[in-house]
Write a structure and sequence with these properties.
The termini are far apart. The protein has two domains: 1-43, Orthogonal Bundle (Arc Repressor Mutant, subunit A), CATH 1.10.10.60; 54-183, Tetracycline Repressor, domain 2. By secondary structure, it is an all-alpha fold. It is elongated. The protein has helices spanning 3-18, 25-32, 36-42, 46-65, 75-92, 94-104, 111-118, 122-133, 142-161, 169-183.
């Protein structure tokens, strides 16, 4: 692991454990065992470090979303695959899930960082847009459709992580089907 990666991983762990405001640069420096000069060589300040972490996690998430998507699948099968891919990414990476959830809805995030990060999951946005144009999905603003889907995934992951429900494949399939039913046209 490079020193840069070490700093990003330490930041992720500290912020998910302590929160944004309770994670000063001094603590990141101490816990990462990386010299301050090295950290400031890679990141201008704490804001830059957090923005970079957010962007890189969004890029990782974007790659995970499109795994196994190919042209042979019908639209509904692609939807189920995308849903399951994002669900598994979050379930298998709970700290990344927590960080992305909190930072995306934080007043700390700058609009331009959100816009740049959106490009990482552009294929999923295009997929939703095409479903609306084809009449497969309800005519809603794309951002609403994405947030409806994401909200279902996020709630399901959180309930599993908090042990409010017992996860099994049947429940997963029913949950994806419910999400699908909420945005499809007929």
């Amino acid at each position: 692991m490079t020193k840069r990666e070490q700093v990003l991983e330490t930041t992720l762990n500290l912020i998910t454990d302590l929160g944004f405001h309770a994670t000063p640069m001094a603590l990141i420096i101490k816990k990462s065992n990386v010299a301050a000069g090295t950290i400031y060589h890679h990141f201008k300040n704490k804001e830059d470090l957090i923005d970079t972490l957010y962007s890189e996690l969004k890029a990782e998430m974007g790659k995970a979303i499109i795994q196994g998507i190919n042209e042979e699948l019908i639209y509904k099968e692609k939807f189920f695959r995308i849903w399951k891919n994002l669900f598994l990414f979050f379930l298998n990476n709970p700290k990344k899930f927590e960080f992305l959830e909190h930072y995306a809805h934080s007043p700390l995030i700058r609009k331009e960082i959100k816009q740049v990060s959106k490009s990482y999951y552009r294929p999923a946005i295009d997929f939703i847009e095409s479903g609306i144009k084809l009449g497969i999905l309800r005519e809603l603003p794309v951002d609403i459709s994405i947030n409806l889907i994401f909200g279902n995934i996020s709630t399901f992951v959180r309930m599993i992580l908090l042990e409010e429900i017992v996860f099994n494949e049947e429940l997963l399939e029913k949950t994806i089907q419910s999400s699908w039913d909420s945005i499809k046209t007929n």
